[in-house]
Amino acid sequence: MDLAFIVSITLDVLNFATPLLLAAAGILIVEKSGVINLGVEGMMIVGALAAYMVAASLASCGMMGFDGKTCLLDPLLGRWSFLVALLAGGLVGSILSLLFGFLVLTMRANQIASGLGLTILGLSLTNAIGNQGFDITGTPLQGFVPEEWRLSNGVLRLGTVNIVTLVAIATMPIGLWFLRRTRAGLVLRAVGENHNSAFTLGYPILRIRLLAITFGGFMAGVSGGYMSLALIGPSWREGLTNGYGWLALALILFGTWRPMRVLLGGILFGLTISLGPRLQNVDGLPGWFVPLFLPVLPYLVPIVVLALISFDATMIRRNAPGSLGKTFEPN
Amino acid sequence: MITWEHRESVGWQTSLKSIGIALALTLLLTFGALWLTTGMPLEAFWQMLTYPWQAERALTQWGKALNPAFYLSLIALGLSISYRANVWNIGAEGQFAIGSVFAFGAWLLLGMPNGLWAIPIILLSGVVGGMVWAAIPAALRTLANTNELLVSLMLVYIGAQFLFYLSNGPWEMSAAMKPVPTRTESIPDSLLFTSVFSQGPKLHWGLVWGWQVYLVVAALLAFTLLGYRLSVANQSKRAERFAGFSPVGTIWIAFLFSGGLAGLAGGIFLIGDTGYLVDQSNFLQNYGFTAIIVAFLGRLNPLGILVAGLALGYLEGGAGWLQASGLGDDSISGIIQVIALFCTLGTATLVTHRISWRGNP
User: Fold this and answer.
1) Residue-wise pLDDT tens digits, B105-156
2) Do B288 and B95 meet the contact criterion of CB atoms below 8 Å apart?
3) Separation in Å, CA of A112 to nearest CA in chain B
4) Which ipTM score applies to this complex?
5) How far apart are CA A260 and CA B203, in angstroms?
6) Are A44 and A224 in contact (CB under 8 A)?
7) Mutating which of A120, A304, A308 best tests the B interface, going by the most B Cβ atoms within 10 A?
8) Cβ pair B111, B220 in contact under 8 A
9) Which of A47, A295, B65, B231 could be A89's S-S partner, Cβ–Cβ 3.0 to 4.6 Å?
């Protein structure tokens, strides 16, 4: 193993961990406020399509003859258009999460069912829009991630690691600091730990939870945007997020709501995803290994590690927010 | 901001009222969705409502509605057993896939017979397949306290890949001219379920037999201790232990019933609708996921699930008709399903509470 190989596999792992960590940062805050939102996959895929659509229109308006439109934004935005597209994904993700917030907070709907519904809504919406409304399949977006945003040039074959990866890794220490060291973090934990006590202390439970849910939607949208712009693409296809939203949810359980463990889990999950393409050409593997075992590895490993981690029931009970998944009913 | 007040009396009227409100809201929002996607909401709505009578062959259209309705309500009935006990099996799609894999595998193991005696064995293997796949999250939950929701969902991806691998690898059809996409051998026509009527190929006898299983399971829920056990389990583990039911046993019951019914649906689908295994995107119809919606639309009640399954099946057929008549895309059905789900979930609190607009602090 030479240095270049180690560097390349490290960057690869971090690249795959990026969307997981971004989404997990949002889920961490949402669940610490006492809400389970299983709509992460749906918000991610909607964010992925939105980011791709914005990126495609920003990139192609610099070219001749795209819908006959003249482009005002691209020269102005320049390299920032990547960021704008990513934020657009986040915005759409948070809009979708507001719907979830209205259902579970105002209408007191079942959180698990509403979250599942949100995932199905996201998948159907993107299938409908990606199919007909906006023909983007052939739009060239190669090289959309600006060169100066990349950390490594020429080392990687698979994808590129850019500054978003650094942000994704930073979310976890920042999350730790926020939850442990700030007043807002303390209030958030109080609301998630016991909403009745927090209500008695005078905290606006629903408003705090809505803020948390919106943040979770934003992060899921950005994470989906990262997938369609940088990780897989730039491209769009149906079901592009491929269960990464669920992996991010598993990540939180793996990390038992503790940011640094979530970070560790993100790297572990990233490793399992990046392992697949690398093991393909190894000699002497049984016939089922490459077509069956390698594709399911990213879903198999979370099952195994979740089973191992959850053996210790007391650790989960100690770390899980006390009001997680419960509907707040003040009267 | 709205606030809620407890109703003084809660009865079937309040329940009916909330369903009525949900229905009205769903219709309103569906109208809006059709407006946005087709631009001709009235025309599209009329077409989706009356398509069996619009088409030349009404029975074919009824088949397109009743066929998915059957699979959806059968799987949803199993899921409702699990949800009533607060056990979250959301992996019915994977259990459906493994059910058909086991069913096909049984046919292969029997030596590819073409006698009718093989059908019960094939279907039973489907049930076993679904149960095996559901037993994994059940075992991890009961032995290692693992979150069953995520494990059952991860197993969907694994099960689908299994289906893909088998139909493209070991079980691939051996022929000079391979069809695209590659698939397994076909189960002989003599074994496949025939249609009930001379036309309407999707209305096969598998649906008729399957409905009877539905009735039996619904009767079990209504007339035996099972239904009571599930509702005790829903209250709390403590209550469950006081009543003498083991929580571990309830988790197993929930998973084995829901997995078994999803597996049965997979087996019936194999010998009623396709006759062979093919890669997951051409085989799986998303029934396992849509059935989650059906279970909640039916408020986890066998009768409600039947109605909800029929409604969503009719909707699937209608969306297909809409696309065929060039008015819109059939992905509209997914959106309408979620609209209905959200309206139902959002109005569930209305059964026990009333909205007060006076805004108390």
Assistant:
1) 999 999 999 889 999 999 999 999 999 999 999 999 999 999 999 999 999 9
2) yes
3) 9
4) 0.90
5) 55
6) yes
7) A120
8) no
9) A47
